[in-house]
Amino acid sequence: MHELNWPDIGHNFLIGDDGRVYVGRGWNKMGQFSHDFNEKSLSIAFIGNFFNIPPGPMALSAARNLIECAVIKDYLMENYTLHMHEDIECTTNPAPSLKRKIQEWPHYGGEIPNYLGC
Fold first, then answer.
1. Which molecular-function annotation in GO is an example for this chain (predicted)?
2. What is the pTM of this model?
């Protein structure tokens, strides 16, 4: 935040490995995490290092519950798709073990074809 002169955290929510959900920007403020998808996304960050080991079951369950809550409250459409940051931006994946878990979820949409242009 300080190096880029951001006023606050860019994600809407953050999830700890203990399953606690922390409010970043919350439901009603647009996230600032992607150049072209901020206006039509809900961003969730997992707190920790998930390069080799994925988040624990409590964190993954919290994420799924948060997404379900977003659908119920009409913050997400029922036919939403899940994407990792590197699916929509030219970045490397700092959390391949997390991505392997998310890819198993029914709404995972993967890389957006013809968008990245990396």
1. N-acetylmuramoyl-L-alanine amidase activity
2. 0.81
Q: What is the pLDDT of residues 90-117, one digit of tens each?
A: 666 667 788 888 889 999 887 776 555 5
Token pair belonging to 39: 């206006």
Predicted confidence at residue 78, as pLDDT, reads 93
Query: Is 22 in contact with 13 (CB distance < 8 Å)?
Result: yes
Residue 45 CA, chain-centre distance (Å), reads 5
Alpha-carbon distance of 96 to 115, in angstroms, equals 21
Under 8 Å between Cβ of 63 and 107? no
Strands (E), 1-118: 13-15, 21-23, 44-46
87 CB burial (10 A radius; 0-12, 13-18, 19+): buried
User: Do residues 59 and 31 touch, judged by C-beta distance below 8 A?
Assistant: no
What's the rounded Cα separation, in Å, for the pair 34 and 106?
Answer: 23
pLDDT > 90: what percent of the chain?
31
